[in-house]
Design goal:
mainly alpha; Serine Threonine Protein Phosphatase 5, Tetratricopeptide repeat
Length: about 220
């Protein structure tokens, strides 16, 4: 579906970023990006000690913190946070480091970023949307515990519950239902949580949705 292709395009762009970053950049910055891509925290620290910017970006606009968050380099993310990397910095696609960590399911990094003040709620696409659509149930639970808006509509008009179900991720859907997500909200094509549960042939989930107040 279009949404999934969009998410995968975000990830693909970041993974290609370092390979294209060397064009037109200084050798020092090029080396910093290569070490960040590998997740070599010691090498990154050494280069930052030489005066390079912890908010440096590659040719595609992905910061060091975004690269580490996407690829699961937890030690490097911790280092960059200690060096005051900008949590609010966005890629051209609009993604933050937290959104990318949610997309790829790196719970440890999600916890680190949130503990340092990364924004859970924001206009447009939010971390919970990414976690729900990709079925990151543990991250969905964590974000909800931290106060994420369980019913926030994504720019395509879908709440997290429907995003999880459209992606076929019923465990993530259950986390949202346990948090009292609104089962009355419908998608732009008329999909409801109840109709999607039926389509998935998940009788237990359908029963849970009915108990939450859904009606035919």
């Amino acid at each position: 579906m279009t949404l999934r292709r969009t998410f995968l395009a975000f990830a693909a762009a970041s993974l290609l970023a370092v390979s294209g970053a060397s064009r037109g950049q200084s050798p020092s910055l090029d080396q910093l990006l290569k070490e960040a891509d590998k997740g070599d925290a010691k090498a990154v620290a050494a280069l930052l000690d030489k005066g390079l910017d912890p908010n440096s970006t590659d040719a595609n606009g992905f910061s060091l913190l975004m690269i580490g968050s996407l690829q699961g380099h937890e030690e490097m993310v911790q280092l960059l946070l200690n060096r005051k990397a900008d949590l609010a910095q966005r890629a051209p696609s609009g993604d933050t480091a937290l959104m990318l960590a949610c997309l790829k399911g790196h719970l440890g990094i999600v916890r680190l970023l949130v503990a340092r003040g990364a924004q859970i709620m924001q206009p447009g696409w939010a971390p919970l949307h990414y976690a729900a659509f990709e079925g990151r149930a543990e991250i969905v639970r964590y974000l909800l515990e931290k106060g994420a808006d369980k019913d926030a509509l994504a720019p395509n008009g879908y709440p997290p519950l429907l995003l999880a179900m459209l992606g076929g991720h019923m465990d993530a859907a259950r986390e949202l239902l346990y948090a009292d997500a609104d089962v009355r909200i419908k998608g732009q094509r008329g999909e409801s949580a109840l109709s999607l549960a039926r389509k998935a042939n998940d009788a237990k989930l359908e029963e849970l949705i009915r108990r939450a107040g859904a009606v035919d």
